[in-house]
Protein: Prolactin
Organism: Octodon degus
Amino acid sequence: MGLCWNVTSPPTCLEGDRCPVNLENLYHEATSLSTAMYARSFLLIRDFKKQFSRSPSFFKPAMKTCHTFIIRTPAGRREAKQMQNKDIIDMVLRLLHSWNEPLRYLTQEAKHLPKFNHSLTLQAEIIAEENYELQDITSEIASKYDTEIAENVDYALWPGLQVFKSFEEPTRLFTFYNTLHCLFGDAGRISILLQHLKCQESTEENCKLSICSFHF
């Protein structure tokens, strides 16, 4: 694991809002949870690869386009700063909702892997719970920008269900790995976007971002 950014910000609240729960607290919850989810997704794919990889290049054929590729996010902080915060929080919600179905099937299919691993199943279940919890927090944040954002979430459809049901073991393992790889990438995108928004709402001039980097 690499160094993660540590962002602190004073209480903030959008003008015109009574803000019974201010944005500082909401962003603190969201960034903490998203960082934990990102770290857990790294551990999940690392452990899966250790247990099921038969060679260093075994999972290379598994790499395919992620179903969330249609949800475009800023390429960097400069581009993100040119966007409205409400548009970025909308991206975060779209990504989170796009993982509801894949995570549900990951937790189910983990129990039917060739070598049952309770730890893998448990980690998948925890990530699914974190995803739902983060949706609730992010929806509350979104409501402070525009109440319609959380009410009309246009998420990406996941096409992997039928492949998961394949009787061919390599096909199922490859699909599982690719899904975990996409989850890891999107968890990182979500974490970075929320950290960026937290800094945007901060009045602290030296608010800095430090990307969490994981390697496997």
User: Anything to note?
Assistant: The helical segments are 23-52, 77-81, 85-98, 100-109, 118-143, 161-164, 169-200. The longest helix spans residues 169-200.
